[in-house]
Automatic annotation (TrEMBL):
Belongs to the THEM4/THEM5 thioesterase family. One of its GO terms (molecular function) is hydrolase activity. It comes from the Bacteria. It comes from Gordonia amarae NBRC 15530. This is Acyl-coenzyme A thioesterase THEM4.
């Protein structure tokens, strides 16, 4: 992370502490409420530049016997940390995501991910996430991710016809 970070302020339209950050796409696998096989994560804005979300580890999320699949946990990290840019900028996509898996996360538990802004430099937004059980502060996994702000229309226009919600997006992407 660069030493000469930009000053950051909360975006005037950002969710207030305690409010849902809001879906970025209703058919998103991570947060969409119309994703048929999705995680349905609800991101909640916190104080400062933080976001958190709880996720019940369902039997279909199993990787090793009785524990969550690491790739699914990484998706959850991506989703919760990916909501941080909405507090300070706008649409952003993941450029880099890394995770240290410290302890197994049991099926049947409720895992909480706490995400925070580490800093911003130009289009680059540096974040950290910690996963722990809702009733424990012991970290089970720690993630660092870099998000890059984008112009939504430019970034997705070549792909939007593949969307499950292509019909709804078409007017926004019309030339
Ligand atoms: C009005 C209609 C609106 C329609 C849209 C509707 C809804 C959607 C809205 C928002 C949705 C947005 C996000 C979703 C949020 C959460 C979901 C979870 C997140 C994801 O699941 S998202 C999927 C996975 N994600 C990707 O699919 C990205 C693929 N990728 C790219 O699309 C490009 O790669 C991109 C855009 C990242 C950059 O490309 P680019 O050409 O725009 O910019 P460039 O390359 O110049 O990078 C700029 C500066 O970032 C540095 N930089 C870049 N990458 C780096 C890396 N990996 N490590 C270190 N530094 C990196 C450069 O070094 C430079 O740094 P510097 O400025 O210092 O030179």
């Amino acid at each position: 992370m660069p030493a000469d970070l930009d000053p950051v302020t909360r975006h005037p339209k950002a969710a207030k502490p305690g409010e849902p950050v809001g879906m970025h796409n209703a058919t998103c696998y991570g947060c969409g409420d119309r994703s048929p096989h999705g995680l349905n994560i609800v991101n909640i804005a916190g104080e400062g530049f933080t976001v958190h979300a709880d996720m019940r580890v369902e039997p279909w999320m199993e990787g090793g016997p009785g524990v969550i699949h690491g790739g699914l946990l990484s998706t959850a990290f991506d989703e919760v940390m990916g909501a941080v840019p909405k507090l300070v900028a706008g649409a952003a996509v993941t450029g880099h995501l890394e995770i240290d898996y410290l302890k197994p996360v049991p099926v049947g538990s409720v895992v909480r991910i706490d995400a925070e802004l580490l800093g911003m430099k130009g289009r680059k937004i540096y974040t950290k996430g910690v996963a722990h059980l809702v009733d424990s502060d012991e970290p089970l996994a720690i993630s660092h991710a870099l998000f890059i702000t984008i112009k939504g229309r430019e970034h997705f226009s070549a792909y939007v016809e593949n969307s499950q919600a292509a019909d709804e997006y078409r007017p926004y992407f019309a030339p």
